[in-house]
Design goal:
With about 575 residues, the protein is an alpha+beta fold. The N and C termini lie far apart (about 60 Å). The chain contains 21 helices and ten strands. Helix 9 runs parallel beside helix 21 and helix 11 crosses helix 13. It is about 55% helix and about 10% strand. Among the domains are: about 70 residues; about 290 residues, Cytochrome p450.
Length: about 575
């Protein structure tokens, strides 16, 4: 039990305070008397002093022991604690811009598994990976609409017995197999290389450069090409469409963390405030769905598109069929979620490299040694040579997680018991990956940006310490799965899983989530982010101005020299 947990236990602290107050009232009276203590306690007043003091001390000790025992009660639902009732959802989650710092401070103050009520709805914040990796496979998360499309995305919280979720997951997993991602890598590289060169040309012409917007659009194009149509060459989406989808995505993420009764109202308010943006996002989603459902060139099949078409047209036992509106939502959510995550990861890695001159020199030397033209002109084999850049991206994902919002789960069924915690039905569970990534309890030198920590194969495993959570009951780890790695490509095999039955190996590093619902597009994200950072460093020079990353010059992608 942490000192913070003891200090924040209200009954325990009340008993301590009462004991101190009683002692402060009694002792001066006793010490102020001139009679010996034996004579004092033989009088009626002395007996009153003695027995009242003893009774107070005994009751205080009993109260304290009972309070500590309640903290370890395995069957007690987390429930709201009095000292957390005043927190609102925004205070618990943090406002945009300082959410990460708020979450880290919250976990440090209140412990790694904490319950509260916000807006009358019960929440549990789980920042202990040993509990989180058991909990994330459970529960659903609905956004207050019938047959919500988010149900169809297994990794985003679908019921495991939902056939639409199962088939969507199967199609997406097949599209994310190492062989499929390696086949898509040249098209992704062509897309990001052209976008990086356009960025350099735009800067060289003297026009203003919005780096964040450019990287977001670059990631959006790369994800849509790889997921939907990587055989037809690069297609550039309008910036307005990408920004509109991103606005709607962020509004949905904010609504998802609110109490259930407030989600629909929050989305409706956001749509009223930015009706034009929401309309543009709906049109963009419709266009993406049309591209996904259109026949491919040469009549070849794409695994994800084939599954999506089967669901929309009612084949393969789908009855009722997935509506085209729901299909558009699924495709739009996948592409926009992937684009936002890849863009933030790419920018975080670039910031870390540019701010550290020695690291920039080492990364530049690695690009030169691998051959800049070969890296951005080849496929995945060229990118795999960039081992230092790979560790930099991994560390950037730790220090600057792509989602500072917690992973959200709404507990379904009759509730879930994990270890000594019971999570009641309809309660919302928040797993703050950002806080876990920045918690000194789980990481050595947590504040240091150290890519070398990823040189060891098991660097992402939680170290076994005496302060770790209590061992879970036997067999409780069966829901946590580790995906084997393809030896040839180094990417994760999507179709098969290998169960980890031994406790003590939960992940403390979760940029792509945890368990069977972790992001199925992890392979594509790895390729996209690595390609984006490499292509941007080959095409442009960057500088760190106060609080922001800017383009400082243009390079030739073939010669690697300034122009």
């Amino acid at each position: 039990m942490s000192v913070d947990a003891l200090l924040m236990n209200t009954p325990l602290m009340m008993s301590v305070i009462i004991s101190v107050l009683v002692a402060s009232l009694l002792l001066p009276s006793i010490l102020a008397t001139s009679r010996p203590w034996a004579e004092l306690f033989s009088t009626q007043d002395g007996n009153w002093f003695l027995w009242s003091g003893i009774a107070t001390m005994v009751s205080g000790i009993a109260f304290a022991v009972g309070s500590i025992a309640r903290m370890h009660d395995t069957k007690r639902p987390p429930g709201p604690r009095p000292w957390l009732r005043s927190l609102s959802s925004r205070a618990a989650l943090g406002a945009p811009g300082d959410r990460l710092a708020t979450l880290v401070g919250f976990v440090r103050a209140y412990g790694h598994t904490t319950s509260l009520k916000a807006g009358g709805h019960p929440y549990t914040i789980v920042a202990d990976p040993k509990v989180a990796c058991q909990l994330l496979p459970y529960g659903t998360h609905e956004l207050d609409r019938p047959r919500c499309p988010f149900r169809h995305l297994g990794p985003l919280g679908a019921a495991r017995d939902d056939p639409i979720a199962a088939h969507t997951r199967a199609g997406l997993s097949a599209a994310m197999e190492p062989s499929a991602v390696v086949a898509a890598a040249p098209a992704v590289l062509d897309c990001v290389r052209d976008a990086a060169e356009r960025l350099g040309a735009q800067h060289a012409s003297g026009r203003d450069v919005d780096l964040e917007d450019h990287v977001l659009r670059l990631s959006f194009d790369a994800m849509s090409i790889a997921l939907l149509d990587h055989d037809s060459g690069a297609r550039t989406a309008p910036s307005e469409d990408v920004r509109a989808l991103d606005v709607v995505l962020r509004a949905g993420m904010h609504a998802a963390a609110l109490p259930p009764g407030e989600r629909a109202a929050a989305m409706a308010e956001a749509e009223r405030a930015e009706a034009d943006v929401f309309a543009r996002a709906a049109a963009a989603r419709k266009g993406l769905a049309a591209a996904a459902l259109a026949p491919r060139q040469g009549g070849t099949k794409h695994p994800f598109r084939a599954q999506l078409a089967a669901m929309v047209r009612g084949r393969d036992g789908f009855d009722p069929a997935l509506s085209e509106a729901d299909a558009a939502f699924v495709v739009g959510a996948l592409v926009s979620v992937g684009a936002r995550a890849c863009a933030r990861a790419s920018l975080a890695a670039l910031r870390a490299i540019v701010r550290d001159k020695k690291l920039l020199e080492r990364v530049s030397a690695e690009l030169d040694a691998a051959g800049r033209a070969r890296v951005v002109g080849g496929g995945w084999e060229g990118l795999r040579q960039l081992t230092l850049l790979t560790t930099v991206i991994a560390e950037a994902l730790r220090t600057s997680p792509v989602w500072d919002e917690p992973l959200v789960r709404e507990v379904a069924g009759k509730g879930v018991e994990v270890g000594r915690w019971f999570f009641p039905q309809h309660s919302t569970v928040l797993v703050p990956a950002a806080a876990i990534h920045n918690d000194g309890y789980f990481w050595d030198d947590v504040g240091a940006f150290d890519p070398a920590r990823w040189d060891e194969p098991d660097a992402a495993l939680v170290r076994d310490t005496a302060r770790a959570a209590r061992p879970l009951k036997e067999g409780a780890w069966r829901t946590w799965q580790e995906t084997p790695v393809d030896e040839r490509s180094g990417l994760k095999v999507q179709g098969t899983t290998q169960e980890m039955l031994a406790p003590g190996r939960p992940r403390r590093y979760m940029p792509y989530g945890l368990g069977p619902r972790q992001c199925p597009a992890e392979n594509l994200a790895v390729v996209t982010v690595t390609a984006s950072v490499a292509a941007l460093l080959v095409a442009c020079d960057f500088a760190w101005e106060p609080e922001r990353l800017v383009v400082a010059g243009r390079r030739s992608s073939h010669a690697g020299k300034k122009m």
